[in-house]
Amino acid sequence: MIRHMIPKRICSIDFALIGPMEIRNLSTSKVITADTYDDDGFPIPMGLMDMHLGVIEPGLRCKTCNRKLDECPGHFGHIDFAMPVIHSGYSKVIKDVLSSTCSDCSRLLLPQERIDHYTSLLEKIHESEAGTTVTMQEHIRRAIREAVKAKTCPHCTEAQIKLTLDKPTTFREEGRKLTPKEVRSRLEKIPAGDLRTLGFNPETTRPEYMVLTVLPVPPVSVRPSITLESGERSEDDLTHKLVDVLRINQRLRENRDAGAPQLIVEDLWELLQYHVTTYFDNQTAGIPTARHRSGRPLKTIIQRLKGKEGRFRSNLSGKRVNFSARTVITPDPYLSINQVGVPEMAARELTVPVRTNIHNLQFMKWLMKENFDPSDPERYIPGINYMIRPDGRRVKLTDENWEFNLERLEPGFIVERHLMDGDIVLFNRQPSLHRMSMMAHEVRIMKGKTFRINLCVCPPYNADFDGDEMNLHVVQSEEARAEARILMRVQEHIRSPRFGGAVIGAIHDHITGMFLLTHGDASYDRDQTVRILSRIDYHGALPKPAYPKATGGPKWSGRQIFSALLPDDMNLEFNASVYFPERSVEENDDLDTIVEIRNGEMLRGPVDGRSISAFKGIILEEISRLKGPSAAREFIDLVTRLAVGALMETGCTTGIDDEDIPPEAILQIEDAMQGAMKGVNKLVTSYNKGNLESMPGRSLEETLEVEVMKKLGQARDKAGDIAGWHLGMDNFAVIMARSGARGSMLNLSQMAGSIGQQAVRGERISRGYEKRTLSHFNQGDLGAAAKGFVRSSYKHGLSPTEYFFHSMGGREGLVDTAVRTSRSGYMQRRLVNALEDLRVKYDGTVRNTANTVIQFSYGEDAVDPTRSKFGEGIDANDIVEAVAGGGK
Ligand SMILES: [Mg+2]
Ligand SMILES: [Zn+2]
Ligand SMILES: [Zn+2]
What we know:
With 888 residues, the chain is α+β, with helices and mostly antiparallel strands. The strands form 10 sheets. Strands 9-15-14-17-8-16 form a 6-stranded mixed β-sheet. Strands 10-13-11-12 form a 4-stranded antiparallel β-sheet. Strands 2-3-4 form a 3-stranded antiparallel β-sheet. The longest helix is centred in the last third of the chain and has 36 residues, at 800-835.
């Protein structure tokens, strides 16, 4: 159907300069007066608002196309210059052309055979179509560079004078100024044969087009005037600028015709040049910006297009759209990761167009009726905002007209229905840095005023709930809905294209909950087991209890409950997050830190971050890779519910007393610290005495720094170890850190033991006063405390000097993040612009739009990372195990 609407197919586009003839042909009106409206408010003929250029007032008709406002596209006019003017945007090109051509005969300053050489070179590239414009530009630049070097003309032997450009538009030859008229007449004389070598296509473009004799005047619709409340007219900046151009042009013509002194004519000419230059670009370097009487700089053509607020980046690349909503997000663990909770208020504004047919007509009529005459005001029933008749007329439904329109609704009408459960929408959080920043969700209409999402989708969006807002877009066509559902749904993005693992998976409380459910010999009585299983909609019979003879009745292990989520053919063995790498396998086995799954039955080990978390979870990775997106989505949803269920049975809390350590531990830490201090002092003394031996490739000072840092690092770790030793797995803070839910053992040891060395730019703190960091220390003190070592813990509190050093380190972190985000944002922009047109073709090569091969094999290994196992194309272990038949 669409094909019939295309009258012609475009096969190529040529870009060229627009010449004076073309500008005049395009023009509907010559503009000669600087006035815009007469006393009655009508546009003055041959003025800037001439009705031939289009109309901006309702009721008037365009004199060119006889159409009204909104229907008339607007038409160009033109201004004839009294004297030619340089186009400031091309002054560099003009300079190149002038200095590579003869000042007398205007031939290219190259011997004929060189010209022929370059011409054939360029022709060859042009014919082969293989070359990009970049290689053509390279040859042209080379030809110009060669020509500029010529001292005399090879054609007429005239000696050449060096040409200079005073930015933006003044050309000089040894100080003598060239008038635009002279420039133009030189450009006019260049023969067509030489132009190709200079990069011009003489069939479409002549170089003298870069010196303007006529200026196109944009249609009024491009520069509409606005009527203020006071009835006053306010003109667009472009119109203001054109008024300036016209005034000066008029004076220049009068003075020239009256035979005024050369000096006056030249001044006016220069002024005209200034106005034309600022009309194009009001931020041209080297000339003052044109301003309003108020002092505000005028916004002229370049300013409209350029930069973040310009037409391209603000109105074309990212424009505001209808059918979208934005509000704060809040969490809801009972939603599926595929869903998004939408407030009723937003759902009643966002609509989906539905074409009525005999099957849905009654339903649509019911919706229409419910909208204006609800049978149950408490219940959300989607309504209808607009009705679009087959002739294309949109009718807004109101309290007055709905009954009338209800009667008229028939198959073929399109109605714009409110959102309802199950509709597919796009959901997005800025900055949109990767494809998972915009995913498709299914709508769940909810009370309240926030969007609700499952916590597992926080990592791909990089969202949290400290006031983050997100955008929602309602897709409007069947094709868009199908694409969104098939390609963009959250479950299709569980596996990351970056590293071949899950980016969507259990986080925070989900991990704590699953760990508490499954660790050690955690077990639950019949009531508890049923309660927990009911959260995952478990319909099977209870398994045989793991502890049938427990006191108080049979008990089921948490692992049994978790096994309900596992596929029957799953066989895995791996080390959990809580695994102690420094201890032996046997010890770890005793401590229950090794996970073993046989035939979908969890035999030992706890479920923690290593099993189910985003980024690292092995069980999650296995399910999403082998069982597909739907299974992975279900697994994540159920793990969330199970974790909440487990937490409801066991509870979990943490507080500052989780970092309490017994007095003997404090003494041990104190000892370790004293020892380290002594060690540092010894190093400093031997350095001062000159006994310290420098490390290979390092100065004495560097050696001291390295040794001291090493010593203090060891002390901090020792303190951490001592603290950690006294903080057991019965401590919720430790459980969270070790299971991979939140925080680390380093965080805990900094709270309980010692904070450690503070660094600025990767070194001990050294700047401050003369030869010391603070006036609290002696000059030249190289000891630990004087250079930013914080031996206190967060819980104990910091001494004033420690606090100061800690603030220095902290400040660096803040500055770093601020600098990094702005810099990486710009880097991302450049990268996207450079790579956006590359694609992987069906033959596995990566090519750009010119079909040039960028990579012969995608990623040089042709592995799609989303389908890989953490980047590896083939999982060798899995294959061996499958062939060997599992088991040990
Ligand atoms: Mg936030
Ligand atoms: Zn018109
Ligand atoms: Zn010459």
